[in-house]
Write a structure and sequence with these properties.
The protein is of the alpha+beta class. The protein has 8 helices and 4 strands, in the order H-H-H-H-H-E-H-E-E-H-E-H. The protein is elongated.
Amino acid sequence: MLRLAGTSSVERNTLMKKLGLDATDIRILSAVQQHGQLSKTRLAELVNLSPTPCWARLDRLKAAGYIKGYHAELALDRIVDFTQVIVTVSLGSHRKVEFDRFESYIRGLDEVVDCIATGGGMDYVMKTVTPSLAAFQALMEEMLATDLAIERYMTYVATRQIKTSQPSLAKLTANVAK
């Protein structure tokens, strides 16, 4: 993942050169991030490049692994009732094997839609989506019954979604040489 916030323009330029990306690549990635799959003509218009070289660059960016996939953003609340709970987790042991075991287990749970490792007081912050609060409780009981070294967890029931988005690649790379 590209992490450029908090770096100087010289550091960003150096990193972009190291990654083999230029300003046109960033425009292509930004357009795809914002609009998803686009026709060759529309993508070329958005990035101000002729269609054939634009498509060749897109293919190169895909092959290099800069684009993980394309997704639809569903209005889930219009389709089904669900419960969203944010969970902070602290493990009792901070050995690598414990982190690996926990992370491997979490990757296999469809109910956990986001999980990040954190520094500081808690080890992980997870976002879960289940059909009901009872289903969330069953999920937590299952996790506690499994040997995951969970020492403590705290839950926060989400009452409404205010914002969800991806970070703006264009803003993260704003000072990259054009």
